[in-house]
Every structure is written in C-alpha cells, then in structure tokens.
C-alpha cells in the first residue's frame, strides 16, 4: 500500500463517522468512497492530431461533481458522459450540447487513468481542442495524479450494475456488457490485424488499480505506417511521432526501442476500453467482452446499455439498490 492511501485513511477517520462504522477496508480505492485530488497539478504537451502545444491541469472538485472537462480558452465545460461524445473515428471526442467547436478530443487515456486511480470528482482543464498525447499511454497521467495526491470525500460511490446482456456489432466486430457476480468490471478483449507484428491477440483481466498500473497503463497507442500518410493528408496525426505512438509496418515495429510488452497492442485497446467505459458516469459492475471493438463500438455499447432501462440499475458500494 502506498503512502497516499495512508493519508486517505486519516482523512476518512477525521471527517466521517458514518463511513467509519461500515467496517469497510479503505486500503483500496475500489472500496466505494468518492475521491478527488489533494492538490491541483498541470503539465504541458502536444496534441496528437493538431500537433499544437496544450496545457492540461487537474483540479480538485466537490463530491458528486464527477469528471468535467473545461476549455479554458473558451470558458466552456463538458461532463465526461457517454452522451456527450460527438466523434469516435480516431479517438473519443466530447463536446457540450450544441457546441461542437468546444470539443475536447482524445479523452480516453486520461479517463482510464482517472478511473484506475480512483478519482471520481475532478476538473480537467485544457486550453485547446485536445488532450496532450504525452507518451501515447496513460502512465504520464497516472504520474501526475500520484503527484497531486488523492483525498477521500465524505460520500459513497454509486455503481452501475449490469443486469442483462447488451451487445452491439459492426462488420464482424462486437462489444458486449454482461452481468457478472464478481465485483467491479472484468474485461476480455481480442484483436485481429493483417499486420504480422500485431496479428491476433487476446487479453483478459479484472480491473483494479494495481492491475491497471502494472498491466495496462504504459501500453501505447499504435498506428499502421500505411495509415499515417492518409491521416496527415486529412490534417490529422500532426503531433504523432515515434515518441508517442507505436508505428507498425507489416511484421516490423518501427520504434527503435521496440515494444514495452509483447502484446502491447491488445493491452492498449483494453486501456482504451477502460477509458471509454468510464464515460458511463459511474463505475460499472459487469463483464465487458469485445472483439475488434474500438471507440465507436464502445460508445454505442454504453448508449445501448443506458437506453435499456431494464439492463442496469444504480447501486451503492455495498450492492444495495438506490433510486436512480
Ligand atoms: Zn488509445
């Protein structure tokens, strides 16, 4: 257990007798109490598609405020919610209703880091249309969040429990959410690429903070060399380089240092799924199964789940149903 969690226990004991009486262990951020950051923190980086420098800041936020992205250059805000997603072609893009110009792109790696680090309430400020890509993974965001520190808030978390299977499909790809007895979110994902360096890969895990940190967080986004020219011609991937993406050319990985994991590709796709599913607005209790699913299917899956009022319910950390 790290030092931050010791601080967290101290805060809980100082502030909440009702919480203390539950007897729940607070050593894990999965334990069911809302958290925010102890301190604000910021960094500077470039956007993957625009290639422009942006400043990112994480700021503490009150209980029940959720994750909110704020465009400091425009004065707009958008909640990190599945129904605020306006584009999923290359990354997941949020925008306030009726304000596509106030978009915030490439939120998935940040969302994955926030949910894995147990941060429920935070303002994510950015002074441009896209998150900085940093190294193409979630690890630098986790580092920032760790430096900021985490503090427990005096309110239990709500959880969305999947009650029946919901599935979306497209061209042989699919994504599914199923009920699951195990607490939290379990994930199983497979991918299939013609490029021999990727090929077929599959990965399964039950999401936990430690599991995310050790198995997924440093796995980078990737692209095919053949697609780079097309993206550049469309004005995209201007900030992309071997410093922030794995580039594959057939059987070859073009990055001089190679891969961080033999199956870094499927692990990154799972990282993306964790980030995309975090847009449900609360943690999920269920099992995610995906085959060749990307941002588009992940978002369609959440929309299909939430549109079916019999497919989910809101429960407290103790599994008791709550009024939705
Ligand atoms: Zn990604």
TrEMBL record:
It catalyses: a UDP-3-O-[(3R)-3-hydroxyacyl]-N-acetyl-alpha-D-glucosamine + H2O = a UDP-3-O-[(3R)-3-hydroxyacyl]-alpha-D-glucosamine + acetate. Residues 1-26 are annotated as: Disordered. Pathway: Glycolipid biosynthesis; lipid IV(A) biosynthesis; lipid IV(A) from (3R)-3-hydroxytetradecanoyl-[acyl-carrier-protein] and UDP-N-acetyl-alpha-D-glucosamine: step 2/6. Its EC number is 3.5.1.108. SUPFAM superfamilies: Ribosomal protein S5 domain 2-like. Its cofactor is Zn(2+). GO terms for molecular function: UDP-3-O-acyl-N-acetylglucosamine deacetylase activity. The active site is at residue 295. Pfam families: LpxC. Keywords: Hydrolase, Lipid A biosynthesis, Lipid biosynthesis, Lipid metabolism, Metal-binding, Zinc. The keyword Glycosyltransferase does not apply. Zn(2+) binds at residues 109, 268, 272. The keyword Metal-binding applies. Catalyzes the hydrolysis of UDP-3-O-myristoyl-N-acetylglucosamine to form UDP-3-O-myristoylglucosamine and acetate, the committed step in lipid A biosynthesis. Belongs to the LpxC family. NCBIfam families: lpxC (TIGR00325). This is UDP-3-O-acyl-N-acetylglucosamine deacetylase. The gene is lpxC.
């Amino acid at each position: 257990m790290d030092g931050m969690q010791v601080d967290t226990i101290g805060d809980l004991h100082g502030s909440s007798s009702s919480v203390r009486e539950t007897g729940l262990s607070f050593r894990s951020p999965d334990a069911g109490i809302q958290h925010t950051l102890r301190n604000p923190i910021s960094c500077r980086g470039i956007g993957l598609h625009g290639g422009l420098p942006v400043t990112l800041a994480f700021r503490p936020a009150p209980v029940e405020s959720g994750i909110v992205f704020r465009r400091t250059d425009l004065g707009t805000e958008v909640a990190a919610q599945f129904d605020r997603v306006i584009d999923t072609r290359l990354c997941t893009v949020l925008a306030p209703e009726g304000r596509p110009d106030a978009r915030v792109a490439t939120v998935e790696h940040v969302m994955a880091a926030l949910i894995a680090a147990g941060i429920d309430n935070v303002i994510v400020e950015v002074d441009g249309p896209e998150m900085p890509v940093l190294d193409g993974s979630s690890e630098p965001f986790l580092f920032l969040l760790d430096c900021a520190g985490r503090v427990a808030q005096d309110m239990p978390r709500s959880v969305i429990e999947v009650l029946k299977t919901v599935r979306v499909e497209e061209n042989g790809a699919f994504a599914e959410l199923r009920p699951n007895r195990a607490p939290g979110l379990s994930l199983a994902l497979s991918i299939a690429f013609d490029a021999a360096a990727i090929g077929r890969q599959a990965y399964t895990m039950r999401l936990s903070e430690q599991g995310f940190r050790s198995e997924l967080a440093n796995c980078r986004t990737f692209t095919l060399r053949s697609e780079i020219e097309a993206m550049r011609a469309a004005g995209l991937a201007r900030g992309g380089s071997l410093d922030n993406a794995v580039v594959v050319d057939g059987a070859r990985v073009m990055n001089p240092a190679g891969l961080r994991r033999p199956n870094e590709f499927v692990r990154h796709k799972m990282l993306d799924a964790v980030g995309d599913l975090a847009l449900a607005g609360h943690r999920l209790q269920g099992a995610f199964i995906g085959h060749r699913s990307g941002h588009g299917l992940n978002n369609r899956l959440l929309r299909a789940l939430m549109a079916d009022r019999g497919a989910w319910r809101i429960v407290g950390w103790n599994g008791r149903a709550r009024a939705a």
